[in-house]
Amino acid sequence: MPKKKNITKKTTKNPKKPQAVKEELLLQPPRGMRDILPADQVYWQQIRRLSEKAAADFGYRRIDIPLVEFTNIFSRSIGEGTDIIDKEMYSFSTKGGEKVSLRPEFTAGIARSYIQHGMNVSPKPVKLYYSGPCYRYDRPQEGRFREFFQFGCEALGEQDPVLDAQMIQMGWRVIYQLGIRSVRVSVNSIGCPACRKSYRSLLVHYFESKKQKLCIDCKKRLEKNPLRILDCKEDKCVQVRASAPQSIDHLCEECRVHFKELLEYLEELEIPFDLDSNLVRGLDYYTKTVFEFLTVSEGGGDAKKNALGGGGRYDGLVKMLGGESTPAVGFSLGMDRLAVEMKKLGARQYKEPKPRVFLAQLGVFAKKKSLRMFEALERSGIRVAESFGRGSLKSQLKVADRLGVEITLIIGQKEALDETVIVKDMASGNQEIIDAGKVVDEVKRRLKKIGH
RNA sequence: GCGGGUAUCGUUCAAUGGUAGGACAUUGGGUUGUGGUCCCAAGAACCUGGGUUCGAUUCCCAGUACUCGCCCCA
Question: What is the pLDDT of residue A303?
């Protein structure tokens, strides 16, 4: 009785002012985060399978690295002045006061691991692949999330351009095999630090003279990161740079030869590529080769380019992080974008293994027997479905039917006692009673007879 | 960071200034231990906070999310 009073008091008096503001419990993850539900896994599984197969085929071995690294691992390698570092990192301090960040990409962490574990003494090149989530605090839109998944490969310790070609070959192959036939590769060379420096001053000199015609952002870029002006989508900047000096015309001899050889390899591989002198890429650590994988989709009148992945050579990165000078090259693919593209195209999906047998039971005793029967069937490699939680035979058969199984095994009270099982052929509806001990062999025989 | 659009059962669509209806899906049933079709039933929703109003899911504003585009990128 007194309880009741309390309750009414609470409910009638409180609504005016909620004292302690309860934090609202939102039944959704933070912005840019999302679940990948079973229905979509048919694409993801296909991506995982094909990409890992390609990595294995080319001799790459898996590496897993932490999701969290010290912030300066990223800021030093990717570079201050890039959007990724300046605006998009999930950075925080730990209770111990360490400044850490969720990885916005893998390459920096892999270079760190390479140095830490002394991989420089391993046979070269050290070939690694990875996949997993990355985080960038960016504005979500189609195919872009704050938590996104990358697959990628890195080859460290080899400077031969044939590795650059292999990277492009692998990335291109994965995308193509996933059914995205419209994939194109754009390649460019931004040179080594030496030739880039002189190219850079040429470029600055050029843009300086046309500064008035550049957009606001590009005026800033002119000081911070002039190469990125080549990336700008603003009309006026596009016009201004049309006659800007191009990096490939100003490569040093070594870089020029490197690039020339890469192109020859690509021709040999018959991979369709486009030279794109404006391709720069956002990260600081790139040297020489840079490339991107794009799809071209018709967006009304003009074709829209959509980046599925990219990569390049980063000969300076390992040294930047304190290791010995190590040439390296890698690429990564945006798995989310691949999935989006596959969905659009109605690309081939991973086929989930389907059960061919259903096990139905009636009554407590039979249910117990079924548990053993299920295990026996599974162990002999027969995929079995069940609905042990359901009581009526009718509803169980309904489930069996929906699953499209070929055979249903029925164990009722009587069969459980007799050590028998009813074998029902779902297509014809015919059924027959057999010895419980012979179920596995009988089912195998019948499935074989039916075939696929 | 900037602009446009959207916001109703799990999904997809309706209607409505007086608290909402269908379809698909789900669960149960159409006698006792037998599926597909069919029939019946049930559960299940107005993003959040303000404002206008006697009254708002509906109108207005803000927030948030989603979405498209810009920027950037995978």
Answer: 57
Provide the edge-to-edge strand list for the sheet that holds A287-299: A61-62, A126-135, A147-156, A328-334, A302-313, A287-299, A184-189, A273-275
By C1' distance from the Cα of A417, the closest nucleotide is B33
Question: Is A91 domain-assigned?
Answer: yes
The reply to whether A30 Cβ lies less than 7 angstroms from strand B is yes
Asked if residue A364 belongs to a domain, the reply is yes
For A403, the domain range is 357-446
Examine the domain organization and report whether A78 and A134 are in the same domain.
Answer: yes
Look at residue A187 and tell me if it is in a domain.
yes
Question: Is this prediction's ipTM beyond 0.90?
Answer: no
Chain A 246-265 residues whose Cβ is under 7 Å from strand B: none
Nucleotide nearest to A411 (CA to C1'): B33
Measure A429 CA to B34 C1' (Å).
9
| Same domain? A261 vs A319 | yes
A138 touches strand B (CB under 7 A): yes
Find the helix packing angle between A439-450 and A364-379, rounded to 10°: 60
> What pTM value is reported for the model?
0.86
Supply the pLDDT for residue A248.
Answer: 84
Mean pLDDT of A358-373: 92
Q: Kindly state the percentage of chain A with pLDDT values over 70.
A: 91
